[in-house]
Amino acid sequence: MSKIDQYLELDNYTLRFRDKGKGNTVLLLHGYLESIETFETFANDLSRLARVITVDLPGHGLSELKTEKCSVDDMADAVDALASHLKLEKINIAGHSMGGYVALAYADKYVEKLESFCLFHSSPNPDTEEKKANRKKEIELVRNGKKGLICKTSIPNTFSNRNLEKFAHEIDRITEIACKTSENGIIAALEAMMNRPDRNHVVKALDMPKVSIIGKMDNFIPFQVAGQIAKENNLTPFVLQTSGHMGFIEQRQECLREIFRIIYEC
Fold it and tell me: Taking the CA of residue 235 as centre, how many other CA atoms within 13 Å lie in the half-sphere pointing to its CB?
C-alpha cells in the first residue's frame, strides 16, 4: 500500500483516494475492472502541472463496497462526498469508460461544481439489449467462480489489436489489477452499467469546455459511433489514431496535452 493512499469512510463505502500536485484540479475516474493504479503513470505525469485526484470507485481497487448494489448515481454521490471532504470548489472531471458513466451522473447532479468535462473512451448512450445480455452472462460467470476468465479476456481487448505486443507488460499489469477486483464489486458494477439511463441530454446541456477522447481502433466503441455522439452533443472530438480503449496508456503524451489544454486553455 502506497504511503500517499488516503481513505474516506462513508456509510456504504470506504473510498481509497490519492491527491497529488498543485494547480487546477482534475478528477480522474477509472473504468470497469480498473483502479487508481491503472491511472498511476498518467496521473503522476499530469500532477506535474495540475492537482490530480484519483479514487477507487466503490467495489474496485481497495474501496470497500458495504452494500450489494451501487448505481452509477450512487458512485457519483460517493465522488461528491470525496469532493466535499477535500473542499473542492471547482473540478475538471475526466471519466474513463465506466468512469465516464459516473462522470455523466456527476454532471447531471452536480453540474455547478464542474469547470470542464471529458469523456475518456466513454458514451452517454444506455446499454443496448445485446450489451445488457452480455453483462448478464458476465455476472453468471463471476457467480460461477470464473472471474479470472473475464479479466484475462476483457483486458487485452481494451487495447488496439496492433498494440497487444507493444503493451504486453501493461496488459499483464492491468489484468492483475482486474483479477483483484472483488466478486461483489464486479457484479455491482455490471448491474450499475446495465441499468444506467440515457444521458445524452446531460452532455448536450453542458455549458463548459467538453471533450470526447476517442480511440480510432477502440474495440468497444466503434469510431463512427463515437464521432456521431460527439457531433450530436457538441463535444469536441479528440481522436487518437493508434489507440483502442486505453489512450492514456497507448498514446499517453497526446492525452496529457489534451487534458492540459482543456483545463488551462479553454
Answer: 27
Residue 64 DSSP SS3: strand
Residue 138, phi then psi, degrees to nearest 5:
-65, -40
Q: In CATH, what class is 6-264?
A: alpha beta
CA dihedral 99, 10, 85, 22 (to 10 degrees): -40
> Considering only CA atoms, which of 82, 92, 104, 11 is closest in space to residue 52?
92
Cell numbers that stand for 73 in this block: 448515481
Distance CA 6, CA 78 (A): 15
pLDDT (tens, 9 = 90+) of the chain, 266 residues, equals 445 899 999 999 999 999 999 999 999 999 999 999 999 999 999 999 999 999 999 999 999 999 989 999 999 999 999 999 999 999 999 999 999 999 999 999 999 999 999 999 999 999 999 999 999 999 999 999 999 999 999 999 999 999 999 999 999 999 999 999 999 999 999 999 999 999 999 999 999 999 999 999 999 999 999 999 999 999 999 999 999 999 999 999 999 999 999 998 76
* 3-state DSSP assignment of residue 172: helix
What residues does each domain of the chain span? Answer: 6-264
Q: Is the pTM of this model over 0.90?
A: yes
H-state helical runs in the chain: 40-46, 72-85, 98-110, 129-143, 147-157, 168-179, 183-194, 200-205, 223-232, 247-250, 252-264
If we measure between CA atoms, which residue out of 77, 128, 81, 73 comes closest to residue 101? 73
The three grid cell numbers given for residue 165, joined into one nine-digit string: 505486443
